Amino acid sequence: MANGYMGRLLFVDLTKGECREEALDEELCRDFMGGYGIGARILYERMKPKVDPLGPGNMLGFLTGPLTGTPTLCSGRYVVIAKSPLTGTWGDANSGGDFGPNLKFAGFDGVFFSGAASRPVYLYIENGRAELKDAAQLWGKDCLDTEDTLKDIHGKDTNIACIGPAGENLSLLACVINDQGRAAGRSGLGAVMGSKKLKALAVKGNRPVPMADEAKAKEIRRQWLPQLQGDGITFRDYGTCGITEASAMSGDSPVKNWAGSGPDDFPTAGRISEDSVINEQEKKYGCWQCPIGCGGHMKARPGWARVCHKPEYETLCMTGTLCLNDDLESIIRFNDVCNVYGLDTISVGSAIGFAIEAYEKGILTKQDTGMELRWRDGEAVVALAKKIAKREGIGELLADGVMRAAARLGKGTEQFAVHAQGQELPAHDPRYVPALGVSYRMDGTPGRHTQGGRGWIMGVNFMADDRADKYDYTNTGELQKKAMNMMHVVNAAGICLFGYIGYPVQFIPEFLTAITGWEYDLDTCGKVGERIANMRHLFNLREGLNPLKYAFNQRALGRPPLEKGPVANVTLDDETMIRDYLKAMDWDTATTRPSGSKLKELGLDRLAGD
């Protein structure tokens, strides 16, 4: 088997209660690298199209990459994959912490679940041995209690990924939580776990990851460690809270449910940014062997969660700038609620902003909500999060996201339900970062800022976009393609994007070469990334989905444009950028189907008939 891989996949049939191992195919690793690359290929082959995302026909996977758990910088990531119940598209979510490396140390590169259990279960893996166990005593517990209970049973060195009550209640905003507060947050995959009555994965092991040249890998790490730069330094010192105020003032972060301006409507953004947040931090921490260490635990207060994590940029914006809420304490408590119940802070914050605007417009009333909903009200933000977690009262309306809430409410609410195909947009505005007008629509998982783009997440010293005017929309496709394809490599390899934007991009092929023994350069990486992009896209095409026809809120594109602020009068020409991207990818500009020659070039030509 190739180095960098444990060489084993585990397939769990929850309906039958059976676990079966398979050897990991080396050609699959060469073609799709790992993570959601391998995952997309396997789900495409082994899952029927058009299955119910919350039915037994959906497959759920937990996967690592070849660099996960190795000396590679920032290599503590894993992904969760399935057909998304939130969007109906390909779904994946990415998380850090310690779980991903320890899944490999327990003996497997990935675990796939099919079917559905008749009663709650969890999977326990220890050094290559896997067993389904009864989870009756865990069902109903929150994520912190679940982790504590499983550590009591299996030992403190056990690592856990689990769902909370939100996933059990099949909220489409539910996520998977590991390390008591690291979240595989997007795509609603916590609900898929809940539908399968799968409460948790618990893993333990000490098997080493085989490496072609371990000494070389460690030498490369020593060489690259001092070269952290740019945003990487900010994240090392502050975590992502270090950019909140600057983003609010520049137009990067959405304000007042995407209808406001930071300088005009939220001049107090500094209260939820940088030192204001760090002053409430008790200690910082990092994911597995990470040199950046962006995480933090906050000072304990009565009534707060016993493990209280520092809120990330997305959380600070989606319940801060989006709701005009500068009450930091309420945002910390909101973050606690989401970590304890297992909810995606981005989508829940968006649902709250949507509800406040609906209340302001008189579409929702106090009789509907059970409380006053106003901008700047931090207590309402926390209360709504709890109601969503429990599907209680107004929380029942909001627990499946803004697209479905707007469909139920009507009365023009769809005009301010900001989403892409059901996935709430994160806290980066396409009116400020034009490339996101392509990424949010055209990636296999819509509404995802972490998928890269021209002038966006591109890595240090990687294809600089040096055009003088970022609103020059012409001839952007090739850059967009290369940037998105490289981000697929980052995700599939098991690297954190903070490492990718903090260190010169060359560290990636160097580590891949040393650890796998295969020769990698940036061109090789780009080709693998393109194959992964096409595979995820083919999954969606087979579902009958064309991203050009996705539901997509126009407010985030500047239709109508804002009248004030840093992005006033901007209306995005996303059509030109998307058309250029489709041409660069060699996808049809109407159907988005890849050409036959492109599929042949990527070794996917036998799928053309699908």
Entry keywords:
610 residues; alpha+beta; Aldehyde Ferredoxin Oxidoreductase,  A, domain 1; Aldehyde Ferredoxin Oxidoreductase Protein, subunit A, domain 2; Aldehyde Ferredoxin Oxidoreductase Protein, subunit A, domain 3; six-stranded mixed β-sheet; globular
Write the layout of secondary structure elements.
Elements: E1 8-13, E2 18-23, H1 26-32, H2 35-46, E3 60-63, E4 78-83, E5 90-95, H3 99-105, E6 110-114, E7 121-126, E8 129-134, H4 143-154, E9 159-162, H5 165-168, E10 176-178, E11 182-184, H6 189-195, E12 198-204, H7 214-224, H8 231-238, H9 244-250, H10 262-265, H11 274-278, E13 281-285, E14 295-298, H12 313-321, H13 328-341, H14 345-360, H15 366-369, H16 378-390, H17 394-398, H18 402-409, E15 419-420, E16 423-424, H19 436-442, H20 477-493, H21 497-502, H22 507-516, H23 522-542, H24 574-585, H25 596-601
Parallel strand pairs: 1-6, 7-12
Antiparallel strand pairs: 1-2, 3-4, 3-6, 4-5, 7-8, 9-10, 9-12, 10-11, 13-14, 15-16
Helix pairs in contact: 1-2, 2-20, 2-23, 7-22, 12-13, 12-14, 13-16, 20-23, 20-24
Overall description:
By secondary structure, this protein is an alpha+beta fold. The strands form four sheets. A six-stranded mixed β-sheet has the order 2-1-6-3-4-5, sandwiched between helices. The protein has a six-stranded mixed β-sheet with strand order 8-7-12-9-10-11. Strands 13-14 form a two-stranded antiparallel sheet. A hairpin with a 6-residue loop joins strand 4 and strand 5 (90-95).
